[in-house]
C-alpha cells in the first residue's frame, strides 16, 4: 500500500479530455498522453460508437435493444461478440452470492417503479425474480443464449463497469499509456508515472468527500442508495425479500477490472466480504447506516477521521 | 436479532443526538444568543426512534468563546470557525444517560469531531463505545475544493433523469 506524502503534490494534469453521455450519465475521459489531432478524432469517435452500440444491445430502457427482445420472446439467441466476459461474471457472482446478484432482477426493478419512464410508482406487490436455471440456458464462453421463457433482464450491476473495461481497452490499444475513465463516479485508470488520487463522495452531501483512494492502475467503483431513494426502495433490491437493503449507506471497491469492482460493490450489500475474498482479489470500504465503517486492511486509501 | 435491532435503535438514537448537539452548538455560536433560548428550540427536534426523547444540555464549554478565534476578514458564513463541546442527555431503559460531543468547524464544515462516553449503565456504556468507535467516519467530511483529487467516486447511479425524477417525487410528497 502506498502512503500519502505529507505535502500533497499537485495532481497530474491531463493533456486532453473527452466528455460524452452514455448509460444515462456523463462520462469523462482524461488522457495524460499527447496524440495527434487525427488520432484523437479517430479514438473519440470509436469511443462514442462503442458506447452507443453497448447501450443499443444491453439497455432495458430501449424498446429496440437486444435485452428488450429477450423480454418479449423465448428462444435461442446468438450473443454479441463481447457478451461472454460479462455473462460469465454474472453467472459466477450469481453462484457466489447465493442467487442475490442476478440479471433476472429486471422485472422486480420495474415493479418497484424503476422503469423506462422513471415512474417510481411501486406496484402493490412486486414480483421476485425466477431462478437462473429455470430461465436461462448459458454455458460459460458460449456464443449463444437460450431464454426458456421471456424475462426482463437487467445488466445494471456489472454492465457499466464492463463498458468501462471495453473503453479502457480501446484507449490502451490506441497507444495511450496514461488515462482515466470516469463513468459518473465509477472509475478506471492507468497512470504509469505516479498514482492518481480519487475522492470518495459523502453519500449525504454533494461537494464533500469522506476519504480518498489512490490508484496507479485499476478500478474504483462505488454505490450508495441513500440520496436516491424512492418509497422504501433504491436501485438495489434483494431478490429473496423484494426489499432494498437499508443497513449499508455506501460501498467502494477497488479491483483490477471495472466490471469486477462494479459487481462486487453490489454483492457487498448482501454477501460478507470474507466470502467474496476467498474467490476474488479486491479491497473495499463499507459505510454502515449506524455510522460505523469497515475498511479492508489493504485498501489503497483512507477515510477522514 | 432482537438484540441487534435494539442496538441499532440505540445507535440510531445516538446519531440523532449528535446531529442535534451539532446543530445546537452551531446555532449558539452563530446567533450568540443566550443558550437557554436555543435550548427551547432544541426541544422541537424530531423524535424518530423510541429511545430518542432528547433534550440537549450544553456544558459550560458552549458558553465560552470558541477555542480557535475566527479569522478576521473571513467571508460571511453561518457558523464561526472553532471547537465546540456539548453534552447531550437521553433516557435509556437503564436510566438517564449522557454523551459529550466536540466538533471543530472550519469554513462551515466539520473538520474534526470526538465524543466522550458518560454512560452509567453498562449496556449504555457498550452502545456508546460502539457508536463512538464508528460515527466519525461519516461525520468528518472535507470540501472537494480543499483536497487535490483527479476525480470523485460516488454513487454508481448518477443518471440525470433518475435524479430529477426522484427530486420531482419528493417535491410532490411534500405538498
Can you describe this structure?
The complex is a heterodimer of chains A (305) and B (175). Chain A has 8 helices and 14 strands. Chain A has helices at residues 37-58, 66-72, 83-96, 106-112, 132-135, 159-173, 258-267, 273-277, and strands at 16-22, 25-31, 75-78, 136-137, 144-147, 179-183, 186-190, 196-201, 208-215, 217-223, 248-255, 283-288, 293-295, 301-303. In chain A, α1 runs antiparallel to α6 (159-173), α3 runs parallel beside α7 and α6 runs antiparallel to α7 (258-267). With 175 residues, chain B is of the alpha+beta class. Chain B has one domain (2-145). Chain B has a 4-stranded antiparallel sheet with strand order 1-2-3-4. Chain B is elongated. Residues 28-76 of chain B have low confidence and may be disordered. Chains A and B meet through β2, β7, β8, β9 and β10 of A and α1, α4, β5, β6 and α5 of B. β8 of chain A pairs parallel with β6 (151-153) of chain B.
List keywords for this structure.
heterodimer, A: 305 residues, alpha+beta, eight-stranded antiparallel sheet, 14 strands, B: 175 residues, 5 helices, 43% helix, elongated
Integer count of domains of chain B: 1
Strand arrangement across the biggest beta sheet of chain B: 1-2-3-4
pLDDT < 50 stretches of chain B = 28-76
Q: Roughly how much helix do the residues of chain B carry, as a percent range?
A: 40-55%
DSSP helical segment count of chain A: 8
What is the CA-based Rg of chain A, rounded?
19 Å
Care to count the β-strands of chain B? Answer: 6
Beta strand % of chain B: 15-25%
Distance linking N and C termini of chain A = 19 Å
H/E element sequence of chain B: HHEHEEEHEEH
What is the general shape of chain B? elongated
Indicate the overall shape of chain A: globular
Structural class computed from helices and strand pairing of chain A: alpha+beta
Strands of chain A, total number = 14
Calculate the terminal CA-CA distance of chain B, rounded to whole Å. 37 Å
Largest interface: A-B, 66 and 39 residues
Amino acid at each position: 500500500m502506498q502512503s500519502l506524502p505529507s505535502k500533497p503534490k499537485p495532481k497530474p494534469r491531463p493533456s486532453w479530455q473527452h466528455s460524452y453521455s452514455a448509460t444515462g450519465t456523463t462520462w469523462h475521459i482524461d488522457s495524460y498522453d499527447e496524440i495527434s489531432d487525427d488520432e484523437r478524432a479517430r479514438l473519440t469517435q470509436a469511443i462514442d460508437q462503442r458506447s452507443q452500440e453497448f447501450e443499443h444491445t444491453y439497455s432495458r430502457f430501449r424498446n429496440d435493444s437486444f435485452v428488450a427482445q429477450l423480454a418479449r420472446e423465448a428462444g435461442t439467441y446468438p450473443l454479441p461478440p463481447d457478451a461472454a466476459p460479462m455473462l460469465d461474471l454474472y453467472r459466477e457472482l450469481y453462484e457466489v452470492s447465493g442467487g442475490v446478484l442476478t440479471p433476472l432482477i429486471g422485472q422486480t426493478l420495474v415493479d418497484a417503479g424503476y422503469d423506462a419512464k422513471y415512474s417510481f410508482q411501486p406496484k402493490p406487490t412486486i414480483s421476485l425474480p425466477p431462478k437462473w436455471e429455470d430461465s436461462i440456458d448459458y454455458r460459460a464462453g458460449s456464443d449463444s443464449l437460450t431464454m426458456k421463457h421471456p424475462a426482463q433482464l437487467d445488466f445494471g450491476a456489472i454492465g457499466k463497469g464492463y463498458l468501462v473495461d471495453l473503453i479502457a481497452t480501446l484507449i490502451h490499444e490506441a497507444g495511450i499509456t496514461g488515462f482515466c475513465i470516469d463513468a459518473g463516479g465509477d472509475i478506471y485508470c492507468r497512470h504509469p508515472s505516479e498514482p492518481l488520487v480519487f475522492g470518495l463522495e459523502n453519500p449525504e452531501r454533494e461537494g464533500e468527500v469522506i476519504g480518498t483512494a489512490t490508484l496507479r492502475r485499476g478500478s474504483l467503483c462505488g454505490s450508495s442508495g441513500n440520496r436516491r431513494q424512492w418509497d422504501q426502495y433504491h436501485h438495489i433490491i434483494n431478490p429473496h425479500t423484494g426489499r432494498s437493503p437499508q443497513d449499508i449507506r455506501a460501498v467502494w471497491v477497488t479491483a483490477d477490472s471495472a466490471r469486477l469492482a462494479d459487481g462486487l460493490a453490489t454483492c457487498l450489500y448482501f454477501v460478507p466480504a470474507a466470502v467474496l475474498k476467498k474467490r476474488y482479489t479486491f479491497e473495499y470500504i463499507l459505510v454502515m447506516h449506524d455510522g460505523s465503517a469497515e475498511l479492508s486492511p489493504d485498501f489503497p486509501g483512507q477515510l477522514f477521521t | 436479532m432482537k438484540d441487534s435491532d435494539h442496538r441499532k435503535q440505540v445507535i440510531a438514537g445516538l446519531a440523532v443526538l449528535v446531529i442535534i448537539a451539532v446543530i445546537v452548538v452551531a446555532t449558539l455560536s452563530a446567533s450568540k444568543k443566550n443558550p437557554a433560548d436555543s435550548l427551547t428550540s432544541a426541544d422541537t427536534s424530531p423524535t424518530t426512534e423510541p429511545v430518542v426523547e432528547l433534550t440537549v444540555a450544553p456544558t459550560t464549554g458552549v458558553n465560552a468563546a470558541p477555542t480557535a478565534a475566527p479569522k478576521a476578514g473571513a467571508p460571511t458564513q453561518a457558523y464561526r470557525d472553532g471547537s465546540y463541546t456539548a453534552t447531550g442527555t437521553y433516557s435509556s431503559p437503564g436510566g438517564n444517560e449522557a454523551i459529550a460531543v466536540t466538533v471543530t468547524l472550519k469554513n462551515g464544515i466539520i473538520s474534526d469531531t470526538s465524543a466522550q462516553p458518560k454512560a452509567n449503565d453498562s449496556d449504555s456504556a457498550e452502545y456508546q463505545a460502539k457508536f463512538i468507535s464508528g460515527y466519525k467516519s461519516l461525520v468528518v467530511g472535507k470540501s472537494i475544493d480543499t483536497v487535490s483529487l483527479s476525480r470523485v467516486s460516488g454513487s454508481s447511479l448518477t443518471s440525470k433523469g433518475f435524479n430529477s425524477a426522484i427530486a420531482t417525487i419528493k417535491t410532490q410528497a411534500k405538498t
